[in-house]
Amino acid sequence: MKMVEEKVNTHRWLVVIGGVLIIMCLGVAYAWGVFLMPIAKEFGWGRGETSLAVSILLLVFSVFMVIGGMCEKRYGPRVTATLGGIFVSLGWVLAYFTQSLWWLYISYGLLAGIGTGLSYLPAISTGVKWFPDKRGLITGIVIFGFGFGAAFLAPLAARFIELYDWRITMLIYGVGFGAIIVGAAQLLKTPPRDWQPPGLAAQKRDGLKVVSNDFSPCQMLKTTTFKLIFISYFTAMVAGMMAIGHISAFANDAGYTSIQAAFTITVLAITNGLGRIIFGALSDKIGRKSVIVVLFLVMAIGMILLPYMTILFALYVAAGVIGLCFGGFLAVYPAATGDFFGTKDFGTNYGLVFLGYGVGCFVGPLIGGIVYDVTGSYSVAFIAAGILALCGGGIVALFLKPPNFQSNS
Question: The pTM is what?
Fold first, then answer.
């Protein structure tokens, strides 16, 4: 029996490793700022219409999180993540042939977005199921790869673009991502039915009992808790993705070199990854709600001050602060979904919650680009996003509470 337990314990950490590798490849979406200016310059496109490519990717990503949850439940995490890896590779490789906005939108936006959605959720949900006692920490570790991947892939992409061009870079990345995601997907396996780690105990957070009932997707959608989580997630992502999508271009406008500008993404990506682990683990100890409110407050301050951070070091500090908060959100919201609505239908449930992420990520970069095209500056967009983040924090602080299962049964 002891040998069986050790084998199971070893495998659940292999699941985490596989998840991190998958998420690292998907995280290059946060390096879009490196590709933005070379593509826009080659074709003479505006930043708003060029940024729409990554907005489409992130929106499609969130939609296919729901579909990915359904596929995972029916076909398992290995098949679902493998299929996602194929789509990711196809989208990046086809982007090499871009000659029009629509081709870029379909290849990089639609196809890579489908693959990202299908691959992302199995990497997270499988880990959550193996570690019900450490949801925040494990979610943070797995999705740490989303930020960490961009940390070194962004400057590497900038260097490749200088040596070759953005097309060759997308081709190289597409082939590499496909191989890594498909390989890592083979490590994903769901735990035995009714399995739980020894010593798992009921927990309380923020003085509120964690929900032990499993909500179906339909039951979850009826709750006020879901609506508040969705809205607040949306506001967080509008602010965060506006900065991620445009901070490199903002640095270029301030007069810094392409490498210096790309390093803002590196700083943001590293802290993004660290924020997932730090705040995911912290939320296990002091509560999801408390951590989310703090994240909103700090994010709002960072966005409002960002337009004034024109000194390089100050710009890096602002990028770091925003990255920490953004990563924190991505770790705490999945864990909160598991706390409030259970893990039986976690894949589909979090996919529905994640639509708030997708809509916010679609709106954030797009509005940032449009405001820049109209005003010639990012100031109005960044400050408005900071105020929106304050509103999101207020919603969570005043109204968020666990759902009532009985009223939805």
Answer: 0.74
